[in-house]
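U., I forgot to send this yesterday:
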Amino acid sequence: MSFTTHTENDLIWLSSPLLRGVRHGFSTRRGGVSAAPWDTLNLRTGCGDSQAHLEENYRRLCGAVGVSAERTVLARQVHETTVRRCTADDAGKGLFRERDYTADALITDQPELPLVVFSADCGILLLHDPVRRAVGAVHAGWRGCAGGLPEKAVRAMAEAYGSRPGDIRAALGPCIGPCCFETDGDVPAAMAAALGAAAEPFLERRGAKYHVDLAGLNRLWLQNAGVAPEHIDACGLCTACRPDLFWSHRRMGEARGVQGAVIALCGEGCR
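Result:
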């Protein structure tokens, strides 16, 4: 399936038809109020952007998606493989309240509790179990991917909520593509150590460097976890190729914002 692009005034965001029945969206850098170098829909806290701008950016994106900005639970990403089970007690953490955790993946079965992860090249994945009514948001850069975080998030949903991997739907948001993800041998070595020969189709050697298909590797982890191939959707846009739409750490360095992905279960009576 292909992602849908939504435009609301200046706001541009993406969604996956595969996640119908759950509120979700993948932001771009368009449609916010932040000034350069965070222009304009920056979702990155702690980078020098003003709190007022951040809150307005979240309200715009969350309003378009149909969730409450004030209840968002933000990942605190450290490129590790911790999965946090979120409850109503976490509402507002990261934007309106301090975070008392580090986690690169968040899961919940609580309605109207939006989970948020971030990217400026890394993989961001949204998960939805429509049977057990649970959702997850995963930040899987190359370190998280090599650590098997997508698979660990699926397992965590199974352990916490009784989710069956075959019921889970997954959407892979925009990330750096193999066209631009050029690395030395450390990244391919980590992927091969984790996935063995199965990683080889996603690692292409070009001279002294390798080009890595991060989205393909994250998809492979989901399939290894038991998620059906037909239940996985991928955006296919490269963040480094599209600076008009996305921030890219590789292209822009630290003087930038981040895009994000948000997902929340609907409450009673929600359509």
